[in-house]
Amino acid sequence: MFRRQAPNLPSPQVACVIGAGISGSSTARALAEQGWQVTVIDSGHFGAASLPLGLISPHTSKDDGALSRLSRIGMERMHVAMRTYLIEGVDWSLSGVMTYPRTGPVSDKNTTWHPDAAWIKPSALTRALLDHPNIKVVRDKVVDALKLESNTKSWQVLSSGACLLHAEHVVLAAGPGCIDLCSGVMRQYANVATPPFDAIRGQVSWGLMAQTPNAALPPNPINGRGSFVPHVPTPEGAAWFLGSTYDRTHPHEGVTEEDHTFNLSRLGELFPDTAKALEPVFSKNVRGWVGVRCTLHDRLPLVGSVADAPAGLWINSAMGSRGLTLGLLCSEILVAQMTGYPSPVDDHLVRAISSLRFAEKARAKMQRK
Ligand SMILES: Cc1cc2nc3c(=O)[nH]c(=O)nc-3n(C[C@H](O)[C@H](O)[C@H](O)COP(=O)(O)OP(=O)(O)OC[C@H]3O[C@@H](n4cnc5c(N)ncnc54)[C@H](O)[C@@H]3O)c2cc1C
Fold it and tell me: What's the rounded Cα separation, in Å, for the pair 179 and 317?
């Protein structure tokens, strides 16, 4: 699915991808399909790969800005991938989603039905993407430093002082783990500020529909003021998923009661009867999942070579709340740059998500000092 025609390309090379979430696994797959040998290293937290359920849906804006355009093309890529690799009705469903305004009163004018939106179990997709003869996956290793060997021009990928491997190309696809990795490299080689990343904690609440057989649940997924997805098949029976909190300040890694309560109260703003019917589950046996999103202040991903760093260092991260919609497309954009294949999007979009947008500002700031 990632293969396209282009003449006079450099021959396939060796790459190390750090992170096996949606960004890392799709980058590895796209490189592997161009003949590259790829080692993926993951610390074992699995990022999106462990998110029990997510929505892919388009971003819309009055000016049809970069995020909206990327999300539309990203959705197309995801539809192809889901149809290619996953079982419909089990791993994903073209459920559609009703999108509500984030705040204020709700009316027919400000709600939108997106028929091409879908729910997906991301782990099924990352597993399928990594299943390729050119990809080797190393689990349970935290990459904590990268060092350029000046004589060979290859990168040493280090974990607790030990070199895990050498590679001419390293892709940072470690979600929030990119923040420390990127700033380490910037300190060492560029002496410029790291892009303004944020790490944002989020918690999903979920339960089995059999626990509340008489609850009046919305027939379709909803999104906008949090999200609610009913009728999802799981090995234990049909389930609903309710999310998510969005917290820049709370470092807690585990599931909290407070966040469950927040999710339920937000559902109550739009569907008070459903929230009431789910209350007994929340007081007894609601389940939860916690993860951390990596974002940038302009809410766009960061894709391309790491500006001001030595050659061979690339990044595919800062997917925010939309990694499932944007991840595959961003990998394709990155791999086009790494391999010399034509880009799937125009130059304007490539620049909008490149790290040059921050490097230029950082340089100007340093010159003013
Ligand atoms: C509660 C919640 C709900 C969400 N819901 C949705 C949704 O409905 N739709 C949607 O599109 N998105 C959703 N998201 C966002 C989505 O999960 C992210 O956009 C997506 O996970 C980003 O993928 P990624 O591969 O870039 O990073 P991640 O998923 O974070 O993956 C990074 C990987 O790198 C590994 N790693 C990190 N540091 C290191 C290191 N130093 N060394 C080695 N490995 C490392 C981690 O173990 C992880 O496996 C949600 C996020 C949260 C928290």
Answer: 10
Q: What is the domain count for the chain? A: 2
Ligand 1 atom closest to the CA of 55, numbered from 1: 8
d(C-alpha 324, C-alpha 158), whole Å? 29
| The domain boundary residue, chosen from 296, 327, 355 | 296
- For the Cβ of 122 lying below 6 angstroms from any atom of ligand 1, the answer is no
Ligand 1 contact, 123 CB (< 6 A): no
How many CB atoms neighbour CB 351 within 10 A?
A: 12
Atom of ligand 1 nearest to the CA of 319: 19
- DSSP annotation of 7 reads S
pLDDT-derived band of residue 7, with 50, 70 and 90 as boundaries? low
Edge to edge, the sheet with strand 92-93 lists: 54-56, 118-120, 92-93
User: Range of 147's domain?
Assistant: 14-93+116-196+297-368
Distance CA 55, CA 48 (A): 12
Residue 2 lies in a domain: no
Ligand 1 atom, smallest distance to 42 CA: 44
Provide the pLDDT for residue 8. Answer: 63
Q: Is the same domain home to 152 and 212?
A: no
Q: Is the CB of 317 under 6 A from ligand 1?
A: yes
Residues 172 and 256 in one domain: no
- Does the pLDDT at position 171 exceed 60? yes
Residue 98 lies in a domain: no
